[in-house]
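During the second year of the project, the team shifted from modelling isolated chains to modelling whole assemblies. The rationale, set out in the original proposal, was that interfaces cannot be judged from single-chain predictions alone. As a representative example for this report, we include one of the complexes processed in the last quarter. Its constituent sequences, exactly as entered into the pipeline, are reproduced here:
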Amino acid sequence: MTIKVNNTQAGPKISKYIYGQFSEHLGRGIYEGLYVGEDSKIPNVNGMRTDVVEALKEIHVPVLRWPGGLFADTYHWQQGIGPKANRKRIVNTNWGDVVEDNSFGTHEYFELLNQLGAEAYINANIGSGTVQEMAEWVEYMTMPGESPMSELRQANGRKEPWHLKFFGIGNENWGGGGNMRPEYYSDVYRQYQTFLPQYDKDQPIYRVACGPNEDDYDWTETVMKNAAQYIDGFSLHYYTLPTGDWINDKGSATGFTEKVWYDTMTRAALMDRLITKHSEIMDKYDPNKRVNLIVDEWGTWFDVEEGTNPGFLYQQNTIRDVLTGAITLNIFHKHADRVKMANIAQMVNVLQAMILTDGEKMLKTPTYYLFDMYQKHMDAELVNLVDEDELPNNVTYTASKKNDELTISLANYDVANEKELDIAFDELPSEIKEATIITADVMDAHNTFDQPDNVVLQKFTGASLASGKLHMTLPTMSVVSVTLI
Ligand code: AHR
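Output from the structure prediction step:
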């Protein structure tokens, strides 16, 4: 089978922010997973655990969404500044009713970003907070000159303002963020964004409005109709559950059947239809695609691991997550003209994580290696196939060009059949610079603290360039990436 790649033509840029992450005050996502405090025996820099930060630096996290999620609409930022001993201890009512001691707050978040080299994406509390509280938070973070909040920030040890790139106005306000109707949310959004201070006129803060849950097209229609001119990014949330059944059966992260494997792939692929349809509605009110679609929560969601707190959303991560992740990222690339940011949920110890920790121990998940592999596509130009229908069954594709290199990534989610294919080009590359693979022999292969290297990024030897074509054999359950020059 030969598929043809249009490599002389370049499509839109695949924004690096599609590789964004999300960390919420949820379970061990922040506490233990990222932040252990300066006095911890776990090696840390200013409280951030060194092993996790070093691992994340390798995948160049471009942006980190914080503090939630649902937690965001209960968060009062003033409780998380100043001397730690004085910070208010509250109850995290969304996630397990555990004590939140607010020891990780605004200063700690920006310290983490600084260590990671990532941009800020903060989600404001509009569900239970006020306009003034939001405006003062932004003043605290971004006001360079003299002002009450700027002086408070300086009194707390930070002279210069921080750079706040992205700002979400509410989270899931159709549900846990206030159970609002779209008409009402549109007005609330218009009001809050009016009072968002913009001190840096050259780099205005990018405003993200709460978009739809999954296929709630009415939400998109109503909010776009009423507020599009005030919105920069419109968020979409969609999680991959094998059954789509939130109440009775999210399914296990490991130990599933072949049918469940394929159901999970089908559910992941639904992202394409969701983006297409929401984007069509957005086109009605924003034909020039000024407003971006921001998929700021996505990933797999399974039952929690046995014996763990149900409110902590801790799940294993397998080769199945690599395949659903590749399907999803390939879809984001395909829609690169509209999708400009995405944030997988969540970076450490929660849902489809990059990293799992257990006290002092940590491991990189299979999904981490997918993000590592796909770095080549960050800020690269999309390269399309001539005819998508030429792809073999159960195979998805993406490709991009950057710095005179062409990277083609293919995912074969067939559990039984390897796929042999040839790729023909408009312009023939001269050599394979690098080829990598993530694969496994069993459907739920995963990494453990005792065996952290079961599923990793490896060199791929199944690709060759001959007779004007790239020849490849894709093993079962694999993602392969080949970079050509
Ligand atoms: O990511 C976990 C939760 O999923 C988030 O807090 C919420 O926004 C979504 O429902």
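The mean pLDDT is 97. The radius of gyration is 22 Å.
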